[in-house]
Amino acid sequence: MTTTKIHSVVCTQSHVLVVFYTRAKCWQFRIISPDGTVFGDYPIYYSAEAAAKAGRDSIYQNR
Which residues span the domain enclosing 35? Predict the structure, then answer.
């Protein structure tokens, strides 16, 4: 069974940024766009802060 721990859920620039941890993939993020599309980066991050920064950067680059 996969255990996923949600670290944070933040709404910014009309998007929802979710940062989470799994044993298999460490820290990651996903972004939910205003139309409900879910996208994100799939590299492994070694801290919640690094994943959150990458997620925010992704939102601002794709505005």
Answer: 5-62
pTM: 0.87
Structurally, the chain folds into a number of domains equal to: 1
Which value, in Å, is the radius of gyration of the alpha carbons in the chain? 11
Alpha helices in the chain (DSSP H): 48-61
Q: What was the pLDDT predicted at 1?
A: 60
Cβ–Cβ under 8 Å, residues 56 and 12: yes
Q: Are 48 and 21 in contact (CB under 8 A)?
A: yes
Query: How many C-beta neighbours within 10 Å does residue 5 have?
Result: 11
